[in-house]
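At this stage, I wrote out one protein's amino acid sequence and its backbone structure tokens, and that material follows here:
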Amino acid sequence: MPFLPGEPAVATRSGRAWLWFLLAGSIAAVAYIVLPQNQITNWIFPAINSSGAVAAWIGLRRGRPRNRGAWTMLAAALSLSAAGDIIFAGYDLFHAEAPFPSVADVLYIAAHLLAAAAVVKMSHHAGRDSMLEAGVLTVPLALQYWIHFISPTLQSGGATLAVLVAVVTPIGTLIVLFGALRAGLSMEMRRAPARLLVAGMVAWFVPDAYYATASLNGTYVGGGWMDLGWMLMPLLLGAAALHPQMPQLNVPLHTSTNILSVRRYLLVIAGVLALDAYAALTADGADQLVGVAVLISASLAAIRIRRPLRDMGLRATQDSLTGLPNRTELLRRLTFALAELPADGSSKVALLFCDLDRFKDVNDSLGHAAGDRMLVTIAERIVASVRDGRDIVARLGGDEFVILMPEATDADTDVVAERLVTTFTEPIVIDGVELYPSVSVGVRTTDDYRADPATLLRDADTAMYAAKNGGRGRAERFDDRYAAEASARLKLDTDLRHALVNGELFCVYHPEIDLRTGRLYAFEALVRWKHPDRGILSPDEFVPHAETVGIVGQLFELVLTEVLVQQDAWLAEFGWRPPVAVNVSPRQLSDPRLVPMVLAALEAHGAPPEALILEVTETALVDETVMTGTLAELRGHGVAVAVDDFGTGYSSVSRLADRHWDALKIDRSFVSGIATDESREGVVRAMIALAHSLKLRAIAEGVEDEETLARLRELGCDAAQGYLYTRPIDAAATTEMIAASPQWEAVPAAV
């Protein structure tokens, strides 16, 4: 017998045991049918059925399947059925009339119930689609059973126990068939053991159905060809248990999207048509004509819908550009790959998430048509990089591809990942332009059959971004810390967006004191977050995230509004409006809405432009458009601009000389220790001299002691800010501080 479709040849003798068992048993079964009946040949029947039970127990012990309980019940069912056959063979041996019901009948009923429980347990994770398709096949069978077997049996009279036995056996067979079909369809009968299992249940069902009919009309004779089905049943089920892929025969734990493929469609419709044909043949007169008409109509409908169904399946499962499986099909196949993981952890399922680096540049420069041609070439390269006939390459969309590697090891994934990041360096010529693509790869492996497919895909995506962050054109294996970091970022994003709406953000104020007069130069507004679970958070814990996700503009607008409202309160209480410095993200400076928003806010509160100072980091000095556009326009309207944390960035003196600033704030890392460290003092002295030569105000940050303050005065620093005066305090405390220091009426903010 050839190997079943899709079944790889197994080199070892133990791997072929299922095949030799099936061949030998089939030969013995045929011999039982064709040889004359005698005392010797009569024992072939129970011997074959007993061998099926023995094979099932051997396979269960050798294979150690994950669904061990289901296989144990199935082996026990075969054992009970074999015991019933031995009892009947004993009646024949002693030429005794078997009573009805007999002990053998009780064993058969118990075997049916155990087999039904086994397939129900095996298929209890099966999805709705497989249940519907199994129902399409078995519901008509149930109706035929009722019409031809059960109803006549109930009407025939007889002992209650005998009628019960006669009815329970075919009903049990029907339940076994339904469960087997449901399990097989949910597994798509991808593995040979699944096909053997379903075939064995069908082989059990057919002779049972025939026997029920023949028993009613008294036509059953032992030793006929119909007995072949009863012998094929244990042979097929025993072969399924002995098969080396038996441990991987598992229904997926996670529901997959089952597209009704042409093959599945033909399987279901063939069963329905077979039942229609049976109904037509068993009917009489006009009913037979109706049955034939229904059969012809159903056949024509099946033929008509075959091609549209194929096209619909392709559109639902394939990427239209590359012809590769799409996301839906990838997740479906990943679901089955997880279900088929061996219980001993000898292999894993791997996902390699591939993303092209800088692909957007291709679309922007050469157009989307050229980008599509490049994607087709990339798809071909990826397919050529994987293991032949084993791995699945899918395109999720855009420039994202995923490789599914079932039955893989870490070494296998390392080889494929290395191949991907090295072979992509070869150029691709598109419209005469040489392109040198590179790919970043995220690797996620698991040996846990309970893993969630969508989560695995997300983890591989996370590892891919880690590869990009690490330098692009490389592979990165998923680490649990990536998931924790991604989860933390997601929660931070959600919480921050809620904070913007729920009023959890507030400002504290840090004074900047003019060192010549001792009066207030300005307050710096610093945003804080009163997190409901984590307490008060500093800007370093959430502002970078706001910049990354694009909500820093909302954050700035909220701070500006709170500052202007607080200035209004101070103006009403003290008769003057202290200037306040507000930090602006460099990313926000390129937003054309910034200038109109700032000017509109000042006008709405009747605040003069000099009441506002915008503090930007040195990063802003790099962008010429920002300096000559946004900042120049703001300064043109009278808003002061200060360079924050000067000396820690990568600005150049020539940028400072462009005169787009009003003040330089010397970072605390330089100011700290100038009273005792001559080198630090020299650096600060040079910074102050630079600021004055450019006619800018020099402001020192991080002043914490009197010695540092005195040294800054000697160096001619204009203003100072630090814990020596106060820590950043909320609006109420700032109001009390202003009230206690009436001499603090601010000096002009701008030079």
Notes: The longest strand covers residues 520-531. Residues 206 and 229 are 7 Å apart (CA to CA). The two ends are 96 Å apart (CA to CA).
